[in-house]
Automatic annotation (TrEMBL), chain B:
<dbReference type="Pfam" id="PF03334">
    <property type="entry name" value="PhaG_MnhG_YufB"/>
</dbReference>
<feature type="transmembrane region" description="Helical">
    <location>
        <begin position="42"/>
        <end position="61"/>
    </location>
</feature>
<keyword id="KW-0812">Transmembrane</keyword>
<keyword id="KW-0472">Membrane</keyword>
<dbReference type="InterPro" id="IPR005133">
    <property type="entry name" value="PhaG_MnhG_YufB"/>
</dbReference>
<keyword id="KW-1133">Transmembrane helix</keyword>
<feature type="transmembrane region" description="Helical">
    <location>
        <begin position="6"/>
        <end position="30"/>
    </location>
</feature>
<comment type="similarity">
    <text>Belongs to the CPA3 antiporters (TC 2.A.63) subunit G family.</text>
</comment>
<protein>
    <submittedName>
        <fullName>Na+/H+ antiporter subunit G</fullName>
    </submittedName>
</protein>
<feature type="transmembrane region" description="Helical">
    <location>
        <begin position="67"/>
        <end position="89"/>
    </location>
</feature>
């Protein structure tokens, strides 16, 4: 299981790094909102992997909250980006 | 090979596959050309990757309460990811930086003038019913 944990950690760190590059480079606020969503899901996957590795369910309620409220950020950004940048 | 070993192996395979899909979504965010295709990367491979990780986690924890919580997480993710992608897509559509040559079907193409007029008129609309 340790090997799996190391592999998964490396993959998730790479995914999070690529997502951070997209958040920094943009170019539009919507790209950043989408990339933030992906980063949130990567963090959720990391929390689930930690729970699976240590067989410890303490962090699972955090996952529920993340899955429930995670989309609010993207939706609000999309809503207000529409008002600020009319084409 | 006991049942525990088999379940742990399957859980490990699910975790690695889910992490690979997360990495695929990250690569797609870097390489895809416009916001609509990046939105596709965020909505589909990302959610499937998270579901695989949750499945691996459930196979590893193996208690009723934890599996119920993980099923709830998966359901919430499946319910909320399309909402976010839909809102981003609706906002992104009439902007000029969308690569129209990459769209296979464009069902809103006939309405684009009306959409642009709606968007252009929106900031002047400051009635309390719209802003609240």
């Amino acid at each position: 299981m340790t090997v799996v944990a190391v592999i998964v950690t490396a993959l998730l760190v790479a995914a999070g790094g690529l997502t951070l590059v997209r958040i920094i480079r943009g170019p539009s606020i919507l790209d950043r909102a989408v990339a933030t969503d992906v980063l949130l899901a990567v963090v959720g996957a990391a929390i689930a992997t930690e729970a699976a590795y240590s067989r410890d369910a303490t962090a699972l309620p955090v996952l529920v909250v993340l899955a429930l409220v995670g989309f609010v950020g993207s939706v609000s950004v999309a809503r207000f980006a529409a008002r600020r940048n009319p084409k | 090979m006991t049942l525990d070993t088999i379940l742990d192996t399957v859980a490990g395979v699910c975790l690695v596959a889910g992490a690979l899909l997360c990495l695929a979504a990250g690569i797609a965010l870097i390489r895809f050309p416009d916001v609509l295709s990046r939105m596709h990367a965020a909505a589909k491979p990302q959610v499937l990757g998270l579901l695989l990780v949750l499945l691996g986690c459930a196979l590893r924890l193996r208690t009723g309460v934890d599996i119920t919580t993980l099923v709830l997480v998966g359901l919430f993710q499946l319910a909320t990811a399309p909402v976010a992608a839909h809102m981003v897509g609706r906002t992104a559509y009439p902007h000029d930086d969308i690569r129209r040559d990459l769209l296979i079907t464009d069902e809103l193409a006939g309405d684009i003038d009306r959409i642009r007029a709606d968007r252009a008129g929106e900031p002047q609309d400051t009635s309390p019913a719209r802003t609240s």
